[in-house]
Amino acid sequence: MKQTSLLLAGLLTCLATAVPASAQPAKANVEKMYLFDCGNIALNDASSFTPGAAGPGSLAVTCYLMKHGQSWVLFDTGLGDPIIDMPGGQKSPAGVWTVKKTLTAQLAEVGLKPADVTHLVLSHSHPDHVGNLALFASSTLVVQKAEYDWKDPMGMSRFKPEQKAITPAGDHDLFGDGSVTLVSTPGHSPGHQNLLVRLAKTGAVMLTGDSVHTRANWDSKRVPERNFSVPQSLASLEKMAAVLKENNAQLWIGHEPSEPARHKYAPAFYD
Ligand SMILES: [Zn+2]
After folding, report:
1. How far is the CA of 7 from the centre of ligand 1 (A)?
2. Smallest Cα–Cα separation from 246: which of 37, 20, 12?
3. Which helix (H) or strand (E) holds 183?
4. 3-state DSSP assignment of residue 228
5. What are 11-39's pLDDT values in tens digits?
6. Domain 60-82+101-262: what homologous superfamily?
7. C-alpha 172 to ligand 1 mean position (Å)
8. pLDDT tens, 79-128?
9. Where are the domains of the chain?
10. How many Å lie between the centroid of ligand 1 and the Cα of residue 156?
11. pTM of the predicted protein model
């Protein structure tokens, strides 16, 4: 038991010191970050994401766009734009997905087309994060190797082989300056990743994908039992806490239902 704890402590220390990877002091080279409302998920049963919860629930769906030099980096693509035209939203056994404003329209409001996105970073490959993947066929995909190699239930690849892709195995400093860092957080899916972003005024912010779904789950360190691996999910929460501390970073939880009220959305931005 003792040995296991020591091993775990050692592993967590390694993980915690893995970010930032660069030996140079990290720079806040992200000029601005926009938040987009990428839909809403009404859940029939909140306990599917929050063990112990009772009754219905809801999740926000947030996408993030960063400007770094000449590059535009999008983190996740949300629910698919076509859902906006479905009366009453898209129904699934778990609940209803709705889109009030398309991602394409929100990009246009800040003067961009999907083709202007140079890097598409995906937290993972679940449908509420890749709903608009097809719009970004010309972007370089940035996905953990474990996620990229993970076949769908039909045994097929989740990504098109012709799309240019960067597939790191573990933490990765995207521009080599510590301003946009992939933080490997497996558990919800095999190759889930968070994104650590540095802004000059706002400071460091960690974006979550589905490593945690709500603020209450973060506070109580609860993870959904439906996750790919519960032990990996719990280890990733520990790693996130260490990375947040080390980088004095805020945690922005993309599915947290109160997120839209707490933050400004595009065309306003964080710098
Ligand atoms: Zn999700």
Report:
1. 31
2. 20
3. strand 180-184
4. coil
5. 444 444 445 545 467 888 999 999 999 99
6. Ribonuclease Z/Hydroxyacylglutathione hydrolase-like (3.60.15.10)
7. 22
8. 999 999 999 999 988 899 999 999 999 999 999 999 999 999 999 999 99
9. 60-82+101-262
10. 21
11. 0.91
